Amino acid sequence: PDHPDVATSLNNLALLYDIQGDYAKAEPLYKRSLASMEKALGADHPSVATSLENLAVLYSATKRNEEAVKLERRATKIRAMKR
Q1: What are the helix and strand counts (H, E) for the chain?
Q2: pTM (predicted TM-score)
Q3: Other Cβ atoms closer than 10 A to 29
Q4: 3-state SS of the chain: helix, strand, coil percent to 5?
């Protein structure tokens, strides 16, 4: 279900896998968390920015820098709107 608590749990599990270097397990969880956060809270919510940043870190770690930069830019825009 698209609920912020479920999305946060998915993100936390993804973060655990990410820290362990298991990017193949982390990536789909980050993506599910992001989609759920967007649906539950809206595309411009600060929690969405956090999910974007976490996925961007994974992309950077896996040498997908162009994708990481796109996510970081989007997260930065969200954070700028909330100030």
Answers
A1: 4, 0
A2: 0.91
A3: 21
A4: 80, 0, 20
